[in-house]
Amino acid sequence: MQPAVKIFSGTGSLYLADKIASRYGTALGKSHIQKFSDGEFQPVFLESIRGDYVFLVQGTFAPTDNLMELLLMIDAAKRASAGYITAVIPYFGYARQDRKDKPRVAIGSKLVANMLAAAGADRVITMDLHAPQIQGFFDIPVDHLDSSAVFIPYMQRLNLENLTFASPDVGSTNRVREVAAYFNAEMVICDKHRKRANEIASMTVIGDVNDRDVVLIDDIVDTAGTLTKSAALLKERGARSVRAFCTHPVLSGNAYENIRNSVLEELVVCDTIPMKQECSKIKVVSTADLFAIAIRNAHENRSITSLFIHSQRRER
């Protein structure tokens, strides 16, 4: 008899895990986070998971309790004799610490990868890592989903006449190039120079955007400083309209104010991180279907790559 699939959620991603379980066709597993008065907590599974395929849904966005909760849930599942444990991490925190770019700094994403494996995870399913090479930090399989599977249908419904894609910085060029290739569209780059983290010294546009409908693409929108400055510069260079698609809405600091006051037509994000407040310019698209299919394919040993629609080329 094939082991059962059971989907559980940490407290941080309950809003998304409930939708994933529903799309998969099952009820969310029963668990509880026991909390002590000093802030310590202990996950408890309220049903047997012996021999089962266990999928633990938890994004590791701030606060760091979300990461610790996931690690403890993995450990609890391992000690409860789960057959196979998969950490489903819609947003993989600490991904921006992916290299030693200055002396005496931590490589946070490598440390988190080590902790997940040490806790007992057999596999990780995540989406749009800040740097794809972070997969190499893991000694367990990683299924790296691509948000283009939910963004591209939205872009197609916009039916923009003179579509041009833009990268808000040099680091996102590969991601933008793949989507531009799918649409057979042009792309431009907004090259920026930073004084320090979250502060831009200068920016320039490489390419022509005159009378174009421009779509900015990035994996993370944090303070939205880069994004809104890029949009303003593109408008100055003659863009007809500017909108942005960013997978993970970190949206810290003055992000919501920056977006409200920007020239952006809209900012489209995924539900990998819960929104902190409402904003008329921000549209949220769900990743629940994509994660549900990925869970099913992982359980049935079917292809995950088939979910990457950007790898297909639209015929004209």
Question: Secondary-structure map with pairings?
Answer:
Elements: E1 5-9, H1 14-24, E2 31-35, E3 41-45, E4 53-57, H2 65-79, E5 84-89, H3 108-119, E6 123-127, E7 142-145, H4 148-158, E8 163-167, H5 173-183, E9 186-196, E10 199-206, E11 213-221, H6 225-236, E12 241-249, H7 255-260, E13 267-270, E14 282-285, H8 288-299
Parallel strand pairs: 1-4, 4-5, 5-6, 6-7, 8-9, 8-11, 11-12, 12-13, 13-14
Antiparallel strand pairs: 2-3, 9-10
Helix pairs in contact: 1-8
Structural account:
It is a single chain. It is globular, with a radius of gyration of 20 Å. 28% of the residues lie in helices and 27% in strands. Strands 10-9-8-11-12-13-14 form a seven-stranded mixed β-sheet, sandwiched between helices. It has a five-stranded parallel β-sheet with strand order 1-4-5-6-7, sandwiched between helices. The chain has a two-stranded antiparallel ribbon with strand order 2-3. With 316 residues, it is α/β, with parallel strands linked by helices. The protein starts with a strand and ends in a 17-residue tail after the last helix. A hairpin with a 2-residue loop joins strand 9 and strand 10. Helix 1 packs across helix 8. The longest helix has 15 residues. It is built from eight helices and 14 strands.
Q: Which labels suit this protein?
A:
single chain; 316 residues; alpha/beta; globular
Order of helices and strands, N to C?
Answer: EHEEEHEHEEHEHEEEHEHEEH
Strand order of the largest sheet: 10-9-8-11-12-13-14
Q: What is the arithmetic mean of pLDDT? A: 92
Unreliable segments of 5+ consecutive residues: none
Give a quick account of the main beta sheet: strands, pairing sense, barrel closure. 7 strands, mixed
Number of helices: 8
Query: What does the radius of gyration come to?
Result: 20 Å
Content of β-strand: 25-35%
What's the N-to-C terminus distance?
Answer: 47 Å
Structural class: alpha/beta
Would you report the number of β strands?
A: 14
The outline comes out as globular
Helix coverage percent? 25-40%
